[in-house]
Amino acid sequence: MTIFILFIIILIYIILGFRIVPQNYEGLIETLGKYSKTVKAGFVFIWPFFQRIRKVSLALQPLEISKYRIITKDNAEITTSLTLNYLVTDSYKYFYNNTDSVESMVQLIRGHLRDIIGRMELNEALGSTSQINAQLSEAIGDLTDLYGIRVVRVNVDELLPSPEIQKAMDKQLTADREKTAAIAKAEGEARNIELTTKAKNDALVATAKANAEAVKTQADAEAYRIDKLQEALNSAGDGYFRNQSLDSFNHLADGPNNLIVVDKDEITNLGKIPAAKKVWESSSQPEDL
Question: What is the mean pLDDT of the chain?
Answer without folding.
Answer: 78
